[in-house]
Amino acid sequence: MNTFRRLLQFLKPHWRQVILGVAALVAVTLVSLLPPLFTRYIFDRIIAHAASMSRPALVSRLVSVSAWLAGVYAAIWVLTFTRSYVMHVLGERFILDLRKRVYAHLQMLSLSYFESRQTGELMSRVTNDSEVVEEFVTHAADMVIADALRLVVSVSILIYLSPQLTVVALVPAPLLGFAAFKFGRAMRKMYRTVRERLAEMNAKLQDNLSGIRVIKSFTREDYEYDRFAREATDYYTMRVRITRMWTLYFPSVEFVVQSAGAAVIVYGAWLLATGGVSIGTLLAFLQYMIGFFQPVSSIARVNDTIQRALAAADRIFEILDAEQEVRDAPDAVEMPPIRGQVEFRNVCFKYGTGEQVLTNIHIHAKPGEMVALVGPSGAGKTSIINLIPRLYDPTEGAVLVDGVDVRTVTQESLRGQIAVVLQDTFLFNGTVKENIAYGKLDATDAEVEEAARAANAHEFITAMTEGYETQIGERGIKLSGGQRQRLAIARAILADPKILILDEATSSVDSESEYLIHKAMDHLMQGRTTFVIAHRLSTVKHADSIITLQGGRVVETGDHKTLLEADGAYSQMYEMYERNMDW
């Protein structure tokens, strides 16, 4: 029920449309109950007395009743159109608000949230689950009101027309109500499972499409087909179980309703023969009985829709309930324009409840200095650079920029003055210009071109057919590795940060691209405090400070010459690097 109430909260901003839709719904429900009364009037007041009426009087009464019926059906049409249009538009608005809310919350969540979840599974919640929840508004919420109203009014009229027949008609009602309750509880659990199966299938599909190059390179098409087929089969199996449930349940409901109808007809015939009811009353009663059991059957179907919606909503609210691990302090202030001094003061860090990955880290970088982080895989290099823009917070100690603890300023004002060029360059599916301008959204064409020139990218961009308007494909698939890296550097140049983080990415590009990238990096680093994760030790020879890490600890600090003379960990790493290069 808590999920149901939370869904209703999303309707509050649209209370005017809700009132209009419900008013139209109530009106059409009440008006649609009038035709059986006309049936009773025609048979009991007109046909029963037709022999004693003149032809003009008979025609006049029939025309009058026909006119009233036409008016009633016209009103039903207008009200049905109003209700349907308002509620469907409201449903679309509801789902828009929900998706925007979920996406905004996803954007606010910390990096650790996404590292433990599959992209395709999250996409399924934002898209597929939202679609299912939309049915709650357009087909379920208002129908609950309509069916409840129809039940109350229909029972009242049935009792008014014939208490004896009403008793017979209502005998199966408690059984149907109990069955609907049990069916709803069972179906919600099953729908939750089927939503999870669908999300897993979508996650697998997204993963395979993203890694299609690797799949083809290793000729793993059949292997991946089998894996996807298993996910799809699991989803199919759950769907079949649900189909078996409702194909058994709904015909059973219809059988009970039809049995009750047959009993009413037999007993009604007896009452008619013995003078207990008139023909018009019996016909009207049968129509109202249909009107009574229609919502009983409808409630079962609406309940099915509601259970699917609630199961999907549970998954959506799991996202909305996820908490930020890294959040702005209540009294956080804007970070003023920074000079670029960075200090790690006795920093310790671990991911979640895992083992500690950084221990007592002390680093001090002056404005404009280049600091290189070297060490074996798992030494803690990436963890250190993640702490500077507050992608994570240290478990102990503090990271300070210009003497200010980064936890005391807003994340936006801090990250707005930091740029990151990662080893795994990410480009968006769009044009070259759009990807460079991502570093400064209001950049002019001249500024974009200037940044591209500084990144040694202008030449290859203009050589393409559409130049800066060239579509580069998903993740920049139409570009080489070196070209993607230079676009990422151009994006960082345009952002004009005071602190720069480089996860060097030249190991997988050709020598010419490496030379151009290094020239672009040299331009990018001018006047900026730069942290470099070095994979090729030749690139850090001119660093102002080289931090050697092992097992999450700083074991050496100094410039290239000093560390070589110390004949320690860095010297051994560099000697091994030189041997490999010679080989």
Spell out the blueprint of helices and strands.
Elements: H1 2-9, H2 15-31, H3 35-46, H4 55-108, H5 111-115, H6 119-161, H7 163-169, H8 173-210, H9 212-217, H10 221-273, H11 279-321, E1 342-350, E2 356-365, E3 370-374, H12 381-387, E4 396-401, E5 404-405, H13 411-415, E6 418-421, H14 432-436, H15 445-454, H16 458-463, H17 481-495, E7 499-503, H18 511-525, E8 529-533, E9 545-550, E10 553-558, H19 560-566, H20 569-582
Parallel strand pairs: 3-8, 3-9, 6-7, 7-8
Antiparallel strand pairs: 1-2, 1-4, 4-5, 9-10
Helix pairs in contact: 2-4, 2-6, 3-4, 3-11, 4-6, 4-11, 6-7, 6-8, 6-11, 7-10, 8-10, 8-11, 10-11, 15-17, 17-18, 19-20
Describe the structure.
The chain is of the alpha/beta class and 583 residues long. It has two domains: 320 residues, Up-down Bundle (ABC transporter transmembrane region fold); 241 residues, Rossmann fold (3-Layer(aba) Sandwich). It is 63% helix and 10% strand. The strands form two sheets. A six-stranded mixed β-sheet has the order 6-7-8-3-9-10, with helices on both faces. Strands 2-1-4-5 form a four-stranded antiparallel β-sheet, with helices on one face. Strand 4 and strand 5 form a beta hairpin. The chain starts with a helix and ends with a helix. The mean pLDDT is 81.
User: Mean of residue pLDDT?
Assistant: 81
Described by the principal axes of the CA atoms, the overall outline is elongated
Sheet having the most strands? 6 strands, mixed
Number of separate helices: 20
* CATH architecture classification name of the largest domain: Up-down Bundle
CATH fold node name of the largest domain = ABC transporter transmembrane region fold
Strand order of the largest sheet: 6-7-8-3-9-10
Termini gap: 69 Å
Mind telling me the C-alpha Rg?
A: 36 Å
